[in-house]
Write a structure and sequence with these properties.
- Keywords: Signal.
- This is Glutathione S-transferase C-terminal domain-containing protein.
- This protein has one domain.
- It has 7 helices and 6 strands; from the N terminus they run H-H-H-H-E-E-H-H-H-E-E-E-E.
- The N and C termini lie far apart (about 50 Å).
- Helix 2 crosses helix 3.
- It is of the alpha+beta class and about 150 residues long.
- A hairpin with a 2-residue loop joins strand 1 and strand 2.
- A 6-stranded mixed sheet has the order 2-1-6-5-4-3.
Length: about 150
C-alpha cells in the first residue's frame, strides 16, 4: 500500500515537472488578449519579427524595439538605446542559437505572462508598450533579448 502511494506521488511530481504541452494559437491569443489586450496587433508583430529573423533582416528587427532595452549576450548586459545600436552590433548581440530559435518559433509555444510574451524559451521578450499614461496609443515592442 505504501509503495503504491510513493509511486503515485512520484508520478504526480514527474507530470508537474514536465514542460507544458503546446497550446493552440487560439489559446495563446486569448491569453494575450486577457493579460495585455491588442492580441491582433501582437499577431502582426509576431509575423513581422519572425519574417525578419527568417530573412536575416536586422533593420526590421530593430524597428520592433522599444528603446531603450537590454540585451544579455557574451556574459554581459548591453543597453540598446537606438535601432542603430542593435543593427550595428547584431552579429555580436545575437547568437546563432537565438536566431534559429526565433526563426522557428511556433505560436503555440510562446510564453505569455503579465510581463509580456516570451519567444524561444525566453530568448526574446515583447510587451505592449504605451506611448502615454492613458495607453490610448500602444504598440508591441521588443523589451529584452537574452542569449
Amino acid at each position: 500500500m505504501r509503495l503504491n502511494f510513493v509511486a503515485a506521488a512520484l508520478s504526480a511530481f514527474v507530470l508537474l515537472a514536465s514542460p507544458a504541452f503546446a497550446q493552440s494559437e487560439e489559446d495563446v491569443m486569448e491569453r494575450i488578449e486577457k493579460l495585455h489586450g491588442q492580441s491582433k496587433a501582437f499577431g502582426e508583430a509576431f509575423s513581422q519579427l519572425q519574417d525578419a529573423f527568417l530573412l536575416g533582416d536586422p533593420t526590421s528587427i530593430a524597428d520592433l524595439g522599444s528603446y531603450p532595452f537590454e540585451v544579455a549576450a557574451n556574459g554581459e548586459l548591453y543597453d540598446i538605446f537606438a535601432p542603430e545600436d542593435l543593427v550595428d552590433n547584431f552579429d555580436t548581440l545575437l547568437t546563432q542559437e537565438t536566431i534559429d530559435g526565433l526563426s522557428s518559433q511556433d505560436y503555440g509555444d510562446l510564453i505569455v505572462t503579465s510581463e509580456g510574451v516570451g519567444f524561444a524559451n525566453g530568448a526574446l521578450w515583447m510587451s505592449l508598450v504605451c506611448a502615454d499614461d492613458t495607453c490610448a496609443d500602444a504598440s508591441w515592442g521588443i523589451i529584452r533579448i537574452n542569449n
